[in-house]
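Internal QA ticket QA-208
Title: Verify multi-chain structure generation after dependency bump
Assignee: T.L.

Test input:
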Amino acid sequence: MDFNYWEQYYLKQNAELMPSLFAHYVADLLKDKQSEIVELGCGNGRDSIFFAKQGHSVDAIDQCYNEIVFLINQYQYIDNLDFRCDDFTDLVDDEPYDVVYSRFTLHSVSKEQETRTLEWAYRNLKKDGLLCIEVRGQKNEIYKMGEAVENEPDAYIYDNHYRRFLNFDNLCEELKKLGFSLDFAAEEKDFAPFNGQNETYIRVIARK
Ligand SMILES: C[S@@+](CC[C@H](N)C(=O)[O-])C[C@H]1O[C@@H](n2cnc3c(N)ncnc32)[C@H](O)[C@@H]1O
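Actual output:
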C-alpha cells in the first residue's frame, strides 16, 4: 500500500531524524534489560537506531528498498542493528522477540493486513514480550478528510496518501482476543506533537 509515496518521501532524506517520543517511552519501559526488538515499518530508521544505541538488538523492516539500502550502508558500523526490506504484513515466523514495535504503520495497511500483522506479532513474541503500537485512530483530527477508499471502511486518501483510521475499542478487543493483556491503552493528545500540531493518537502497550 502506498509503496511509491513512501519511496519518494524517504528519497528526499529530509524526514525527522530525532527519535520519536514513543521510542523514548518504550526505551524507558525496557531500561532494565537488553531486548530483542523488531520494528515494523522503520522509515528512515530513527527509532531503531536509537534502540540499538541503547544496547538493544534490533531488526528494522521497511518496504522502501532504496531507503533500506541507504540505511544498511550508513549504519553498518552498528553491529546490533539489521535493516531489511520486507512487507511487514507478510512475514514468516522468526526467532521470538521481546518487543514488536510499530509506530505510525498500522494505519498504512488494510484491515486484513493489520489483523495478519497482530497475529504474527503474538506468535513471534516471547512470553511477557511487548507489542508497542502508536497509530492514527478515529479521534485523529484528519479522520474522514479526503476521498473515502471504496470497500475499505475508515480508509481515506488525503494529501496523496492512504490512511485507515483504527477504532480504539476494536483494536483493544482484538488484542485481548489474541491473548494479549494491555499494560497501557489510550487515545489522546500529547503522544506525538509535530510541527506545531498536537493531534490525537492511539498508544497501546500489549503484553503476551
Ligand atoms: C509514517 S511512516 C513511519 C516511519 C517510522 N515508524 C516513524 O515513526 O518515523 C510509515 C512507514 O511504514 C512503511 N510501511 C507501510 N506499509 C508497509 C508494509 N506493508 N511493509 C513494510 N513497510 C511498510 C512505510 O514504507 C513507511 O516507511
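Spot checks passed. Strands lie at 36-40, 57-62, 81-85, 97-103, 125-135, 147-148, 155-157, 162-164, 181-188, 201-207.
Status: verified.
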